[in-house]
Structure formats: structure tokens, C-alpha cells
Amino acid sequence: MIHHLSVAARDPKAVADFFAELIDGVSVDFPPNPGSFMVFKADGHGTAIEIYPAGSVMAPNGDPGAVFLTRPTEVVERTPTHFAISVDRDAAAIRKMAEAHGWDCFVCDRGGHFHVVEVWIENAWLVEALPPAFAAEYLDFANAVSRMGDPTTALEDHAPQARTLERV
Question: What is d(CA 18, CA 111) in angstroms, rounded to the nearest whole number?
Fold first, then answer.
């Protein structure tokens, strides 16, 4: 189980407030990295999302633990890193929240296995929101894969989109 994860944003407060609303959680300052916020959901699992200012990086620091460093950011950086999160909102409500921020939002079918609501945070990086019905689809799929005799074949029908091989 993943208990928390971190992401970077140009406007960490706005992104933290979005996630707090999305998951019915709370947003608090995160002093170890000034300008950062942490969103907690009281779900008994310690679910949390840390939102750092764009340009933040973590570096090893031996026994005292990782330190935060800042590098310049000149452009919005896209990344393959993303996550899916179960939420208690329907797709229309999620879309309305994203649109209020001016962010792209799409309901997508993942190879006929399950659906997600793609929210493009700051139109730069992806979070997949799973309303209850979509979460049930995802869990059915994930559980089926884990029970397969040869799970390496689970995604064979997930053909890449035509644009997947484009160079940017």
C-alpha cells in the first residue's frame, strides 16, 4: 500500500486545495520544504499527498534523512510519473473542479478494462481519479491480473495510441 506520495506544482497551494477537495481531506503547510503543502485524508490508511514547489528535488543526506534542494524551472516539465486515486465524487463533479482551475479533464477507457477521469494538474502532469464505479472496475481488473497464471499477458490488448511513438 502506498501511504503518501509527492508531486511538484507551480502553485502548490492551489494544487493542495484541489486535492483536499477531491479526496475530502485537509491541506496543511509542510515546513521541511518551504512553500510546500501536505494533504491528508482521515481514512485509516495514512493517505497523503505532498505538493512541493516546482523545481524541488530530494537528495540523500545520510542518516539525518533526505534534504530538499531547488533547481531552476523554465518550462512546464511533463513526466511519466502519475497516480490513480479513488475518490467519492462522480466524473461530472471532478470535471467541474478541474475546469474551475482551467485544467484539462477527460473520461477515458483503459483498454476496456476500467475507466479513469484524467485530470491534467496545471495542464502539465496526470492524476487518474477513480469515482466509486471506476474504482470497482480497476480493482476487479487488478485482482484478476494478480490471479492470472501468466500475468505478463494481462495488458496484451492495451495497444499504444497512434501518438504514443511521437517525439516531442
Answer: 28
SS (H, E, C) 47-95: CEEEEEECCEEEECCCCCCCEEEECCCCCCCCCCCCEEEECCCCHHHHH
Cite the DSSP H helix spans in the chain: 12-22, 91-101, 132-147
Residues 6+ apart with CB under 8 A from 69: 56, 57, 58, 59
**Of residues 24, 110, 27, the one with CA closest to residue 9:** 27
Segment 17-35 shows an average pLDDT of: 96
Q: What is the pLDDT of residues 45-74, one digit of tens each?
A: 999 999 999 989 888 989 989 999 888 766
Q: If DSSP codes are grouped into helix, strand and coil, which group holds residue 126? A: strand
Whole-prediction pTM value? 0.86
Q: Do residues 135 and 17 make contact, with C-beta atoms less than 8 angstroms apart?
A: no
Q: Could you tell me which of 35, 127, 19, 27 has the C-alpha nearest to residue 73?
A: 35
